[in-house]
Amino acid sequence: MSFAKWVGGALGWSFGGPIGAIIGLAIGSLIDGAAEQKGFLLGDGNSQNRQSSRPSSRHRTQSRTRTRPQTQSGDFEVSLLILASVVIKADGKQDQSELNYVRQQFVSMYGKDRANHAFRLFKNISKQQIPTRKVCLQIREMMDHSSRLQLLHFLFGIAKADGMVTDDEVSQIYMISGYLGISSRDYSSIKAMFYNSSDNAYKILEITKEATDEEVKKAYRKMAKKYHPDKVIHLGKEHQKGAEEKFRQVQKAYEHIQKERGF
After folding, report:
1. What is the CA radius of gyration of the chain?
2. Where in the numbering of this chain does the J domain appear (predicted)?
3. Does residue 253 lie in a domain region?
4. DSSP 163
5. Contact 104, 39 (CB under 8 A)
6. Which of 23, 84, 139, 228 is the most buried (most CB within 10 A)?
């Protein structure tokens, strides 16, 4: 599969708006020849395909007042690439271990060929000045909550790839989570999965140490439902693997508290 066909076939709602502009610029530096660039940006020349790739303003207005369109795997992938580039540059440098983490994660999720396409795009995205707020607001408007939580989990994984999460990275991810419409409780829950402390198990379940045993059990059921891999099944099997990691962290946190309290 050619690079142009891979990207063109992967994008849905992310083809427009600020994300579309970022991707268009990145593609422009990767694809030689005006004809081939036109083929990517406009589909196969069929007007019906072009209209379906980028919703009309009327359709976008209707989607705001009704329900979000289902996020495609490609939309999630592109959102991931852009936000990953923001986090990696948060401390003023691109650490090789973080770049390796991104590449390894994409190989794990997509296989070597697709990962190579994605990483080529990522390197060109990372050269741009990203309008973080605008990008996040587009994602927030179009992407379901469970998928946004999965984005946040991946971003913390990138920050931790070099062995530590810097204050600059934490600040950047916190800002991104706010723009994405993720609550402070959900943010703290996912953040706790990447730290070791005595109260992390409680933070993951979004409760305090003062919670009763029954409240712990109730919190576990709630979080297990929230982070269940089936919540992102529409993104494809490749993204369920990341969701399974969050789910395991919830189970591990609950088992820790069970052992600690002896119930």
Report:
1. 19
2. 200-262
3. yes
4. S
5. no
6. 139
CA distances from 180 to 5, 22, 110, 177 (A): 29, 18, 25, 5
Retrieve residue 231's tokens. Answer: 């919540």
Tell me the residue ranges of DSSP E strands in the chain: none
Q: Is the domain of 197 the same as that of 167?
A: no
Q: What is the dihedral of CA 226, 232, 233, 236, to 10 degrees?
A: -160
Number of domains in the chain: 2
Confidence tier at 62 by pLDDT (50, 70, 90): very low
Q: Are 131 and 175 a contacting pair, CB within 8 Å?
A: no
Q: Which amino acid is at 35?
A: A
Interatomic CA distance for residues 109 and 93, integer angstroms: 26
Domain assignment present for residue 71? The answer is yes
Token output for 249: 């962290």
Record the pTM.
0.78
Give the model confidence (pLDDT) of 92-113 as tens digits.
Answer: 777 777 778 778 877 877 788 8
Write down the pLDDT at residue 188. Answer: 95
Could you tell me if 219 and 259 lie in one domain? yes
Please check whether residues 131 and 173 belong to one and the same domain: yes
Q: Which residues contact 213 (CB under 8 A, 6 or more apart)?
A: 261, 263
DSSP letter (8 states) at residue 205: T
Segment 110-132, tens digit of pLDDT? 788 878 888 888 888 988 899 99
Give the DSSP letter string of 112-160.
HHHHHHHHHHHHHHTTS---HHHHHHHHHHHS-HHHHHHHHHHHHHHHH
